Amino acid sequence: MAINWRAYDHIPLFEIYQAAYLWVEMEPIHRTHAELVVHLDPGVEQMMVLIIENTGGHYCKGTPILMQSCAKRRVTRQSLIQMAQKLGEKPKFLFPETRDEDEGKARNKADVKSIADVESIVDVKSMTEPALNRDKPLDPRKKKTYLLLIMALCKKSGIDFNERAVSKTLVGMINRIGGRRTEATIREILEELKALERELEP
Could you tell me the pTM of the whole model? Predict the structure, then answer.
C-alpha cells in the first residue's frame, strides 16, 4: 500500500498516533478514541510509547488510557527529527532523501476505512510491501526500529530480556522481523536486544 509521502512534507505538527503510523510506514487511519483502543496495530501503539518518551512526554499506563489521553497529543516535526537522529533512524515521512523516486509520486487509493480490524491491516501490508514478506530479509533500519519497539514494550512491562516471559512479547512481532516462531529465533532476538541495549547505554 503506497503512501503519498509528499502530503506530509510540510506538516509542522503531528498527532502522536499519526506520527507512529507513518514511522512504521503505514497510512494513518482516522478513528475515534474508542475505535483506536480496539483497532490500533500493536506496532503502532509501541511506536507511540517510544515517541512520547523521546519527545519529553510520559507513558500513560494501559492501552485505553494511552489512547484517550495521548493519541491526539501533538508533537512537532523538529522533535520527531531530533528523536530520529538520536535513534539513528531516518523515517521516510521526515527524510525525503530516503524515498524511492516512485514513492514520491504514489497515491494511496485504498479505502482504509473498510479495513475492519488489525489482522486485516497486517494482511494487506504483508501483501503489498515486499519488505515484510517472510521470504525476504527485513531492511536493517526497519529491523532496528522494531527491536527498539520490542525493547520499549518489555521495559514498560517490567520484563527482563533474560526472562522466559519475554517470548510472549516477541512472538507477536517475529514475523515483522523476518523470522519464524521458533525457540532459536527468540534466543537470537534476545541476544540482539541485549546488544542494542549496550549500544544505547550512555
Answer: 0.48
